[in-house]
Amino acid sequence: MTIIMFRQVLSVGKTQFARGYATAAPSTKAPITLFGIDGKYATALFQAAASKNALSTVETDLNTIDEQLTKNARIGEVLSSPLLNRSAKEQLIESLGKKSEITTNFFKALIENNRLSETKRIIAAYKTLMEAQRGIVSVVVTSASPLGNKELKQVKDNLTKGGLIKDFKEVNVVNKINPSLLGGMVVEFGDYTIDMSVSSRLAKLEKLLTDSIAI
Length: 215
Prior knowledge:
Strand order of the largest sheet: 2-1-3-4
Distance between the termini: 35 Å
Number of helices: 9
Number of strands: 4
Oligomer: single chain
Low-confidence stretches: 12-26
Order of helices and strands: HHHHHHHEHEEEH
Strand content: 5-15%
Shape: globular
Mean pLDDT: 81
Structural class: alpha+beta
Radius of gyration: 20 Å
């Protein structure tokens, strides 16, 4: 039933969801369009790195920083603190390991714009861009209970054959579990989300009833 509903959602939103993906372009242009603050900054970093032929170098820098932030969540909290002055934040970033000039300047810009709190999300967005550059797209399917290989393959087939995801050499589908969804699934790829969860439908119904009572 969920897979059938998934096909119906795809047929309705094909144009909307497909527009963010395109064949990896040459030069400095990002291979896909990402939105939000994290997408904007990740794209800017990608383009700067591409112009210097340093995409992999910057990726290595970000992976190192991400590992440090994952090992010690306190570092991220300190970086996001408004009580820490600019100089102290620059020193803390420097202590996370040797980095290229592009990465160093990028983090200086984050500090200046008070966007260090977005670091983890920006790194994740940059990884998405790098995967797309290599012809890979990751799809996260969140469900209330584990999905079987057959169901995950159906999701993958619907996305690729339906035209929502095209021009990619490889599609990686990952299943995450969230019991609060109650049923159905949420499919995420790039900057897009297809929410077919029971909890989402119940929330919409509740809002509809609440609005009707208010009137």
